[in-house]
Structures are given as structure tokens and as C-alpha cells.
Amino acid sequence: MRARVRKFAHILERLGLAMAGAGSGLFVAVHVGSSVSALTSQAFLLVMMLGGAVGFYLGIDTPQLAFHPTNGGSTRKIDAAEFLSAVGTFLATLVAFFSVGVIVLRSEPQIGWTAAIMVGWVLGIAMQIVAGTIARLRT
Q1: CB neighbours (10 Å) of residue 60?
Q2: Measured between alpha carbons, how far is residue 121 from residues 27, 75, 108, 139 in Å?
Q3: Looking at the chain, which terminus has fewer C-beta neighbours within 10 angstroms, N or C?
């Protein structure tokens, strides 16, 4: 019974993270779509939300690489999945935060800033997806 409750709690947590990613993707899509008329479509909103949901679902709760120090010392091997997950999550949430700020303050940043936000979002969720894939494929 206890194992089922833990699994259910873990699934709820992951679904919550996916919804947070989808919401973040929605904010970025609204900001970018309001600045670039070619990206004002429901399909663009859906793609951005799905990308955020998948990225946050896979990339935030990655299993860590086992730590095995040799001869009492530590090896300085970087866990690629953990690093990509951390940087990707930070980048995706940072640009989502900026997008919300632009929407709430009703400002109109230059197109370069909007492009930077879009690129930051795509890189952030791509890093999360890659991190989640790496972590789940390793033995």
C-alpha cells in the first residue's frame, strides 16, 4: 500500500511539473506571438505548451548518477544529465519570467529581445528533454 501511495504522489508531482511547464510555454508563446504576427496561431501556442510540458516532465526530476569516490577521494566527473537539467530549467523559467513581466507591464521590447526569449525557451526545454532522456537511458 505504501509503495502505491508513493508512486501516486510521484505521478502527481510530475504532472504538476508538466502543467507548470505548459503554463510557462503559454506565457512565452503569448509574448512572442504578440510581437511576431506570423506566430499568432493556436498551433504555435499548442506546440510551445507541449514542449514546456514534456521538458518539465522529463527534465526536472531526473535520477542522479551514482556517486562512487575512489580511494577516499572524489572524482570530479560531471553528471551531464544533472547539469543540463539545472541549466535548462533555469533558462526556461528565466525567459518565462521575462515573458510574464513583458505581458503584465504591457511593454513592447525590441524584436531582438523577443527573439532572445524565444531562443532561450527552445534551448531551455531542449536541454531538459535531453537531460531526462540521458538520465533514463543510463544503467
Answers
A1: 21
A2: 11, 33, 18, 30
A3: C
CA dist 41 and 30 (Å) reads 10
Instruction: Count CB neighbours of 93 within 10 A.
Output: 16
Q: Which residues contact 36 (CB under 8 A, 6 or more apart)?
A: 111, 114
Distance CA(30)–CA(91), nearest Å, equals 18
What is the tens place of the pLDDT at every residue in 78-113? Answer: 788 889 999 999 999 999 999 999 999 999 899 999
Instruction: Give residue 2's identity as a one-letter amino acid code.
Output: R
With contact defined as beta carbons under 8 Å apart, do 139 and 63 qualify?
A: no
Question: Would you list the DSSP string of 78-108?
Answer: --HHHHHHHHHHHHHHHHHHHHHHHHHHT--
As to burial, measured by CB atoms within 10 angstroms (0-12 exposed, 13-18 middle, 19+ buried), residue 64 is exposed
Q: State the Cα angle at 72 between 69 and 138, rounded to 5°.
A: 5
70: phi then psi, degrees, rounded to nearest 5: -105, 135
CB burial of residue 69 (10 Å; 0-12, 13-18, 19+):
exposed
